[in-house]
Structures are given as C-alpha cells and as structure tokens.
Write the structure tokens for this entry.
Amino acid sequence: MLFVSSEIENLETACQKVLSMPQIRFAGVLNKMGRKIAGGFRDGVESLLPDKENQTMYVQLMLDYMMRKDFDEKLGTIDYIVSRRTNLTMISIPTKDYLVLISAHRDSNAQDIVREVNSAFITLPDIKP
C-alpha cells in the first residue's frame, strides 16, 4: 500500500494531539503488517522495551487483533482492546486500514483515552468521535 504524504501527516498530527494528554506515554499508528508508520513516544519518555522488541510487539498486536476479528460476525466488531499491565495500560483501536496503539500510565481511564483518541483521529473515515 502506498501512503500519501498528507495522510501520514494527518496521522502524525493526530498522534501529537493524543500525546498532549498527560497520561499518554506513546501514540502510534500501525499498518496491516504491524509496522509503525506514524507517532512515537512523548518527549522525555523512553520505551520499556528495546527497539527490536517494540517491533515484535507491534506485529504481535496486529496478529492478535486479526485473530479476534474471526468472531466479529457473532460478537460484533471490536471497538478497542485494553491490556492493563503492571507498568502501563495499552490500548489498541482498530480502523479500516490501521491499528492505533496507545500506551498510558497504568491507572489511566481507558474509556476516556479512547474518546480523546477518536476525536484526534477524525480524519480517518471509520473513527467515530
């Protein structure tokens, strides 16, 4: 899939809006292959994983989402996936072409974050603010 530079710019802008929320550590956009195409960590925040492990995690998150889609017909489509870990909360929000990935402080309210993310990503046609 070829990316139009204006689309990537829009995704980057949306990630920056999300990163302005104090509880957010990371906001990124993954393509269908699990590759990060936009976003990154908040200034001053370092990843808890080395770069190579981040890449592996992105692919695993995309595979996890794709496997969960097998149940869409009977259970309905996925709005978002939340994983609360000891050190942080991770939120994956699927769109038609991408997976928006958010890492936040552990005790963050996932529903509040999802609402803010959806508002920031209104340029994507299947995001509902």
